[in-house]
Amino acid sequence: MLKPVKSMMVVLFAVVATHVQASQYAWSSIHGDDTDEWDRVANWWWGDGGQPSEAPGADDNVLIGAIFSNTQLDWPVMNTTVAVSNLFLGGGKGTPGKDGELTIESGANLTVGGAFRLGSDGGDSLGYTGTLYMTGGSMVSDVFAVGMNGSEGLAYLSGDASITVNTFFTFREEGTGTIYMADSSVLTVAGNKTGLANDRIMASVGGESISASYDGSSTTFTVIPEPATLGLVAAVGGTVLFIRRRFMM
Q: How confident is the model at residue 71 (pLDDT cuts 50, 70, 90)?
């Protein structure tokens, strides 16, 4: 059983505190813009009231699943380069919320300068679910906290998706969360987190498993294909080698 990390909240709040002057954006379709495009201004609502004049940027906090999203129809899909200050996916930031989803597609690049909270408390302890789908692309964050204060955080990585956590990575004990990996996806996090492999960080495909390696500063998780797949690759490689030798004779 994972032990609670007392310093985690200090780190999170310290990161958030450095951006207190940032604007707060909530994903919403209340303006009638029924699309899933991240950079479409009409899909956003300012936390302090009103429609913003531009999509959130590097100095802004973003809430996906906040109370403002009750009428929302499509969850955001990211297919470009985006930078934000802090990201709260599922729940909210000190306010009531709801479940939330975000999809990052191949070619997209998300940078979170502060904390990415996947499954946030929403301020009412009801327990919400934040779900991150990555079919490719990259996400880099200073802090990545999964499953906050009774909520659930889920991440599904596939294709060539990659996540890099530079400073602090944790699964909160009082919440629940799992990261599922497939294909050539890669997860690299600060610190020695090898014990999470095949426990809280799982392979999506049955028969496959997760490999974890620690280099003294960070842990890298990758997918080990099932034995049948490895055997097929070896067989194909042997056949190609035989054909090459055959025609070279």
A: low
